[in-house]
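Supplementary notes (optional reading)

For those who missed the lab, this is the record we used. Protein: Endoribonuclease L-PSP/chorismate mutase-like domain-containing protein. Length: 154 residues.
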Amino acid sequence: MTETAEQRLEALGHSLPKVGKPLFSYVPFRRVGDVAYLSGQVPRLADGSVIQGKVGAEMGVEEARRAAELCALHLLAVAREAAGSLERVEFLKVFGMVNATPEFGEQPKVIDACSQLLAAVLGERGHHARSAVGMGSLPSNVPVEIEAVIRILP
């Protein structure tokens, strides 16, 4: 019997968060044919609060990687909602933004935590093209925001 993405997620010690209502004027995803554009996800905790801090000043790489992993879980939750099942999800592109000091240059290492979790859960369907960039600030002073483009398989 083949292990499902949800079983792999559970084996890794994770569960998907609920997809929350957007706080502003946008939708969690927008589907066009077999492609869905997922809105940027921030490291929101189960109680609704967010992880905060500027990477390179108020937090280090490992804390930022944990925040990026939490963003990945939120992306997976939105992707499941868009596709109906994680078995129908293929990640095409990830765009990771890191709220960092001007001197910080390890954005790829931070966003790798998201990329690695997507690949661990979805296998080949989790591998994607990617950008990892530094930003002077992000909403609510979150350390990371990540958006994605997925393909929904038949």
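If you only remember one thing from this example: The chain is about 30% helix and 25% strand.
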